[in-house]
Every structure is written in structure tokens, then in C-alpha cells.
Description:
This protein is mostly helical. The protein is 75% helix and 0% strand. It has 6 helices and no strands. Helix 2 (19-43) packs across helix 3 (47-67). The radius of gyration is 16 Å and the shape is globular.
Amino acid sequence: AVLPGYLIxxxxxxxxxxxxxxxxxxxAYLLLGLIGFGFAVIARTVVxxxxxxxxxxxxxxxxxxxxxxGAVQFLPHEATLSxxxxxxxxxxxxxxxxxxxxxLGWAVLVVTGAGAVFVQRDAGS
Length: 125
């Protein structure tokens, strides 16, 4: 799904983004997919992770920017934008590498939690 979108977006002549940007997009989508997968296993439904991953950047994050601007940068969507070099709030953003590490941390945390929940709740029955 990433390749056709990337080709359409960057088909303009003179676009300076290269293979490294495409690799970053694939990595970001993979890690966000793992976060969604982990939420789905924990919640036992696909609706909850979709709601969480939609509501967090659209409703919760803008309100938190006023209260905790330094903490918002550590949410998965903000870390992804920082990793891709498109931060929503440049004064309060992570660097490229830090964004990747935070996003990876979220993926590891949620997938590990999902594995633990699965083993305890579903595999143990």
C-alpha cells in the first residue's frame, strides 16, 4: 500500500526524496501496524484500536499540547511525524532518530503486552 501512494505523491520532477524516505515510510507504517495489532489483541476487537489511533491525534493530542506540550511528542503519531521529518509542532518535536526509537518503543511495549495478555487470557484457557 505504501509503494503506490509514494509513487503518486513523489512523481513530480525534481522531488529530492529518495529511497531512504521510502524506507522510513515503510518502517513507520509497519510499526504503527504493530501498535494497532497489539491493541487489537489486548482489546479483542479491531474497533478499539482504530478508535484509539484515530481519537488520539485528532481530539486528545491538540488538547494536551496546551497542558503538556513536552509529553505529546512521545505519543505514537507525534513520534511517527518526527521520524518522517513532518512534525505537527516543530518547537516540541523529537529528532529523526529519537522519533524512530520512541515509535519502536511503543511497538515493542504494545506487542509485548499483547503477547502477555494472549498467553494469560487466551492460551491458558
